[in-house]
Amino acid sequence: MQADILIGSPAEALVSNDSVILIIDDNPRSIKALSLLIRDFGQVIFATSGEAGIAMTMKTKPDLILLDVEMPGMNGYEVCRQLKGDVATRSSGIIIVTSHDSVEHEVAALEAGAADFITKPLNAPVVRARVKTQLLVKKQADELHRQAEQDGLTGIYNRRYFDSYFEQEWRRHQRQRSSLGLALVDVDHFKAYNDSYGHQQGDECLRCVALGLKAALRRPGEFVARYGGEEFAVVLPYTDDEELHRFGPWLCEQVRALKIPHGWSEASDFVSVSVGLVSCVAGKICSHTQMLGQADEALYQAKANGRDRAVIATKSSS
Ligand SMILES: [Mg+2]
């Protein structure tokens, strides 16, 4: 990255630095010419065949791909169709680069899923303008994606995110035959809190608890989502029962330590939570839905036992 060529329009500043642009072209000279034109927009990487380009997209998830059409083996249109047809790679924007300057080729590029089209010989201002536009489009799409996964009230992940990622994690752990942990967390006597302190204060309470739970996470891959109302879900990769025995009470402690006064709780003077936990090793529980059901039963038990506590689901019921 060269600081002296970072100066530009505000839009240029927006897409600089952190974007990753992949050039897929069989001709090293074309790669060099293209990368010289766009290197101030971000990190430029390259691949010299369609197959290598697909592999690199899987690995690096580039923001934008500049894709040559004329390549031996897989041509650019085929590469484009494959990348756009795979959920793992389709979020990268693609600009097709070709020496064929005809409407038919432009239509073929768009039909293959490309966002735009650049013709050779390269025209520097046109290349830069098109690349800049697509990087901005990608930034906006990423932002929308982030908002779609976020709970509006608490700012943590929402139920939609939980539903898709919990299942994904469950499948991954099944494949790897490793243990996945799950905690369902419910704010004790939250209805009484809302009724006595008002909804605004109730919302503030949920925000605090959400942040407290998020701060309680320690390991990569762990995440907390708002499961609904005053209920939260925590996904704990590579976690077994032994670790749940430590994690459950600790989670309760973290919420107690927030010291949010709750004059109408029978469980404590402060806002507290009940936690139901379960861990699952491949084959022990036959679906992620059952895992959720068991955590829910354990949560029910924690409430029945007097709240402000954690209960781990017993494996004999699986
Ligand atoms: Mg070529």
Describe what is shown at a glance.
Residues 20-135 form the Response regulatory domain. With 318 residues, this protein is α/β, with parallel strands linked by helices.
CATH superfamily of the largest domain: Reverse transcriptase/Diguanylate cyclase domain
Identify the CATH class of the largest domain: Alpha Beta
Q: List segments where confidence is low: pLDDT < 50 over at least 5 consecutive residues.
A: 1-13
Termini separation: 55 Å
Q: Could you say which small molecules are bound to this protein?
A: magnesium ion
User: So how many helices?
Assistant: 11
Overall form: elongated
Tell me which CATH architecture of the largest domain applies here. 2-Layer Sandwich
Protein name: diguanylate cyclase
Organism: Ketobacter alkanivorans
EC number: 2.7.7.65
Domain Response regulatory: 20-135
Structural write-up:
InterPro entries: CheY-like_superfamily, Diguanylate_Cyclase, GGDEF_dom, Nucleotide_cyclase, Rev_trsase/Diguanyl_cyclase, Sig_transdc_resp-reg_receiver. Keywords: Phosphoprotein. The chain has a five-stranded parallel sheet with strand order 2-1-3-4-5, with helices on both faces. A five-stranded mixed sheet has the order 7-8-6-9-10, sandwiched between helices. The protein folds into two domains: 3-145, Rossmann fold (3-Layer(aba) Sandwich), CATH 3.40.50.2300; 159-317, Reverse transcriptase/Diguanylate cyclase domain (Alpha-Beta Plaits, 2-Layer Sandwich), CATH 3.30.70.270. Strand 9 (273-280), helix 11 (288-304) and strand 10 form a beta-alpha-beta unit. Residues 1-13 have low confidence and may be disordered. It starts with 9 loop residues before the first helix and ends in a 6-residue tail after the last strand. The protein has eleven helices and ten strands. With 318 residues, the chain is of the alpha/beta class. It is 47% helix and 18% strand. The structure holds magnesium ion (MG). Magnesium ion (MG) binds at residues 25-27, 68, 70-71.
